[in-house]
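Appendix C reproduces, verbatim, an entry submitted by the partner laboratory led by Prof. M.T., so that reviewers can inspect both the input and the predicted structure.
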Amino acid sequence: MKRVLPWLVVGMLGLNACGMFDSKTKPAKTEEQKAFGDTGIPPQLRSRGGDGTAVTPGGNKHGTATLDFTPMEDIWFTNPDDPDAQVPELAALLAAPKTKPKIWEESDTISRSRSAREGKPLLILFTNSQNNSMCKALDEELLSTSNFEKWAAEKLVRMRVDATVSVKDDALSVDEAKNREADIKTYVALLKKRYKVLTYPTLILLNPGGEVLGRYPGYKSGTADFTWGLLKHGESVSTRAYAAWRAEMEKKGYREWQDRQGRKVFAKLVSYAKGELILIEPDGSRSRTHEDKLSDADRAWITEQKNLHNMP
């Protein structure tokens, strides 16, 4: 089974990972074809001989930050003979989630997915909210203040990992509640190990590609402005790196698409036939849509491309 980055897993926003591929059946390499060509299926979707469409890990450096998205050659699809089978509708992926995103997410998968799609860095708070005085001080002096809340809502995706676990749900039996608490504690321990957290509180800032930009262990009462300054600097570095990465991706054919409701997705056109489009995002997520569902600007762009390729 081929490797897929953790934040590529299906999350609340409906991001659809590309599934698992049977390693015994590897498609043969073919000559590259364009989206507006005879078949419209580029070889990097079917073999490991891709042209590096997705950003290379460690590449596109800007300052000290890089964006580490899944390389195209590491992406495998479920059926090599029909790579467009069961591709989800773009409208479904862009639809608003059934529940409003949390101010502080609790799922690592959902947080990473939001960060990648929104292009915002991810701030992870490791805390022991009820048993650590410095955790309480950090929350009261910075994280819960109106000024920080306003800034963070615009600039960051936030996730809280709390070692204080208490399940209170009348719908659960005593044993079920205990099992739920045990599961949460195991999850917290896993995340602590993954992010190498040794003390509470600890703040970790990641760029949209999942790379750690800053690690800020501990907190001293009265240093809220200093801590916030560190986070602002990290966010600024991430934003500049993301802009540079996006510019490079645009040179490789990625662009911003918009539907009739004004919802947007950053993706590359990899297949076009009779008005039907297949789009792929930098993380490998694919979706299908029809040109009638796209904005006037996108439809004009498609018409221009069809004229360039002498298509009816």
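The two ends are 41 Å apart (CA to CA). Additional entries are available on request from the coordinating office.
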